[in-house]
Every structure is written in C-alpha cells, then in structure tokens.
Amino acid sequence: MFPVKSVLICICIIINAFTNGGYQTPASNVDNKPNYSEFKKGVEHTKSVLIRHPANDIRNYLFKLIDDDIYNYWAGTPWNFYGATRQPKTGNIACGYFVTNTLSDLGFKINRIDLAEAASAKMIKKLCVEIKSFTTIDKLNSYLAKQPINSIFIIGLDFHTGYIIKTATNTYFFHSYYKKNEGVIKEKTDTSRALNASKFFMIGSLTANTGLLRKWVANKPVM
C-alpha cells in the first residue's frame, strides 16, 4: 500500500510535470532504478492518475516509458529465436516477444504470445494506426522525417520486428537483434544494419492510436 500523503505528492508531481512537458519516469532520473517489479507497479499507479488527462499526456508518458525506461532495463538482453523471457537481462528474448512482452509489462492487455508468434503485420494491424508499407529504406526514412517527434511506431521487416522511436533529435530502431545473438539495442535508423538489409517495411503508429492509449490507462483489453 502507498501512504496517502505519498500518493498525493506523487500525483501533484506528475500533473505538474506533464503540464510543463517534461515528465521523466523514475528509472530515467536515478542511477539506482527500482527493480523491474517495482517499476511495473509504479507504471500501474501512474496510469490510474492519467485516466482523466488529455490524450497527449498519455502519449508522452508512453513515449518516455519505451524510449527511456524499457531501454534502460532491457538493453543488452541477448536474442534467441525461441527467447521469451519476462525478466530483462535474464534469459533470452526474440524480436516479436521483445515487443509484446514489454507492452504487456507496461500494462497493455494483449495476447502477447499470439502476437509475438504471428507475422508482424498482425501485431501492427492490431495495435497501430496510420499503417504504411514501403519497399525501400529511402521511402521509409522520408516518411519518418515527416512524423511528429516523441512518437513510437511498430515496424515489421522481411523477417524481423521492433519499435521505431522518433525523438526531437533523431530516429531510432529499438529491437532485439538476431545477428550474433546481440539482443536488445537501440540504433539510429539511417545506420541500422537490420533496416538496411530489409526489402520490405510495414510501419504503424502506436502513440497516435488514441483509442488504444485510453484502453491502456483504463486497463481495458485490446479487442
């Protein structure tokens, strides 16, 4: 249980931070970040605060979670074709399971196993809006250059999947990389080995899906 005084202080901090456009999650602000279980509990609490907030506040919070916290916890977790670990830096994680497990850990009510083991197009169509397909990386990069900052996308390649993160300064491919079992990395899209090796790209916006965001903070299943 959280003490009432602590909860009220936490709510005030969150509201002020979102108003100023500078919300940072605990894992981004402290060197000794909480363990993963405590982090997930904190996410659930913040989601309950955001239910009555504008969609843009929810969008910014999800962006920070994936860009900062999920990266900080999961970076370096090794890849394996059958990897499905639920604990970062323990065991192995396949590319599809990396996306669905982390979304599930953030509280999205999804069928993570079904979506992880299906073609990435199924996951993208289930979770994203503004879905586009491209046959060259130049066309993909041109599309991404026009997208709003602080956006999270899911992308499917020939035989791979992951997040695309558009920040104020750059665009990144955040994924569990299969080459030499390298695992979870975040790399610039223009120099990404996996992106440059692909001949097909399907991409959809996660953060632009307002209906999904509302279901997320309300703990409603994604139908």
Describe the fold and architecture.
The chain has helices at residues 4-19, 26-29, 36-50, 55-74, 95-105, 112-117, 120-127, 137-145, 193-197, 210-217; strands spanning 129-134, 151-156, 161-166, 171-177, 183-188, 201-205. It has 223 residues and is α+β, with helices and mostly antiparallel strands. It has a single domain (4-217), classed as endopeptidase fold (from Nostoc punctiforme), CATH 3.90.1720. A 6-stranded antiparallel sheet has the order 1-6-2-3-4-5. Strand 3 and strand 4 (171-177) form a beta hairpin. The longest helix has 20 residues, at 55-74. 39% of the residues are buried. Mean pLDDT is 90; it is low at 1-30.
Span between termini: 31 Å
Can you summarize the main beta sheet?
6 strands, antiparallel
Count of the separate structural domains = 1
How are the strands ordered across the major sheet?
1-6-2-3-4-5
CATH superfamily: endopeptidase domain like (from Nostoc punctiforme)
Short description:
With 223 residues, the chain is an alpha+beta fold. Helices cover 46% and strands 16% of the residues.
